[in-house]
Structures are given as structure tokens and as C-alpha cells.
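#lab-general

N.A. 3:47 PM
ok so I finally got the sequence cleaned up, no stray characters, all 338 residues accounted for. can someone with queue access submit it? mine expired

B.Y. 3:52 PM
send it over

N.A. 3:53 PM
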Amino acid sequence: MAINLQVLVKELPLKHTFTIAHQSRDSQETVIVRLEEDGIIGLGEATTNPFYGITVDNMKSSLASARSIIESSLWETPEQLWSLTKSIFFANPFAQCALDMAAWDLYTKKKGIKLYEYLNLDPNQIPTTNFTIGIDTIDKMVAKMKEVEWPIYKIKLGTDHDLDIIRELRRHSDAVFRIDANCAWTAAQAIEYSDELQQLNVEFMEQPLAKNDLEGMKEVYQYSKLPVIADESCIIESDVKKCHGLFHGINVKLVKAGGITPGLRMLHEAKRLGMKTMVGCMTESSIGISAIAHIAPLLDYVDMDGAMLLSQDIASGVNIIPGKVTFPDGPGIGASLK
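B.Y. 4:20 PM
back already:
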């Protein structure tokens, strides 16, 4: 085995300023890991994130620290590489995600099969992704929704007029709504809002409270009229069990968890606990989104609209329309840099 590691940095321009409860951005930096062995190339991706302290520099530094292991003959499978490098990436799961994704792409390409085939998953069982509407003025949020007609919208909240936003959006669409407060509410707000949100055909609430407000989540879980899905409260594998009895389901972000390898373990554990499963994106290009699509048959819900939010995609990969995901020909994850 003679593997060559390359780390590429790209800028992803967004169609609209994207605002959630704790940040706004007009573009998104992303790091691409490229593994090459005997002319076969594996690609993986993870975006930077100031909220989690993840920068291009510390991602590149972590990957450089793991280079000797990555380029060695110490591993054959992505799971082996993940375990061998776990201690190096303990503070930078985003960098580990990009590497893990590239390892899975390379591994399944060498086997000549698609990732979903290797995982024995049925691509016809992929749930329809939601399309995300970031926080803005109500008029602009309505305009963003009308710009992309979609059967499911995830609406970012965390303002002082959250119910007004949903009421107005509902006037313009019969689509299913999901709301994501990104830790912005109190337990009392979440419980109070849930009644009207249910009447407004909201399917679930994602992460209404601060990630460590476990006492508050006990109340919300008991009294909310809507199911609640953990995001910031469910980052790593040990969090899944902690969320049982506080949330009805978990939203696994591959970049936060450290890649596909731990993400799969988290999803299987949630299923064993009887919880709903979801995977979300972090505004990645079609590289990261294509990887999510391959594991999406495991999910009850999926948020893989990241590439749809870009004004220019640096990669090609899966094609997503309501109710159908089309995978490119060929093995692996199926994404390629343009």
C-alpha cells in the first residue's frame, strides 16, 4: 500500500446569507482530503466552524500529525484507520471526518462497489431531504421558501418573533415544516410554542434548549406536543445513550462525530434504543452530501441540502430532487472535484 495524502482548501459561496441563532455567513470554507493509491482517488470533506473552534489551520495541522499513519501500511479498512488516528483527532473530529470519508471512498472504489452496496443499504429507501430556510426578515424567509419549492422545509428559529415567522410561512406553503432553534429557547418557551407549532403542521423541534440543559429537556420531553430531536446535545457516540429519555431522536452530524465510521455506530445504537434517526449536513459541497446520501437509507429524516444552498458547487455527485436521489455511475461515494 502506497497512499498519498493531499489536503485542499476551498471556498463555497452561498446563494444567500445564512443565519442561525449563533452565527451568519455568506460563504463557507471547506477542507477536502484526497487519498490516492495506485491511481484510485478517495475524497472526503469537512467544513470549518467558528462555533466549534474548527479552522483550516487546525484541521490541516491535525491531518499533518496523522500523515505517517495515513500513508503507512498499518491499516486496510476505514475502521482501522479511524481507530489508529483517534487519539490524534480527539480535539478535531471535523478533520477526522474528512479523512474517514475519503478512506471509505477509496476503500469501496478499490472493491469496485458503491458505499451503499458495501453497507447493504437500499437506495430506494432514502427519505426526502428537507430544504433549510435560514433566519432573516420574515419577507425574505418567505421569498427564500418560494424560490425553491420543496415538500419539507427546515426553518431556523431563535428570534423574538419565532411564532410569527412560522405563521407567515404557513400562509404561503402546505409543505411539512421542521423547526430548529439551535439552543435558543427555554423549556417553558419550547413547551408553550409546541402547541401552536403542532397546529401549524410542524413535524418536530430540533434542539430547542441549550445542549447541557438536561433538566429542561426532561420537561420538554414530557410536556411538548411535538417530538424533539437532539443536535448539539448529541455530538459523539457516548451522547446517544444520554439523549435517550430526553429526546425522541438524534441528528448525527458526521463532521462533529468524526466521520461515517462513528456515525454508523451512533445510528445503530439509536435504533436499538427505539429513537428516531437523522443525519444533518454543515453546508458541505457535493462531496460531503454524496457521502450522507449513501447512509441515508438508515434514516427516518435527513438534512442533506448543503450543496443546494451554494451559488457554486466545487464538486459533482448525487442529484437530489423531491422523492428521488440519483447516484453517479461508478464505485465509492461517487463525488468528484470539478
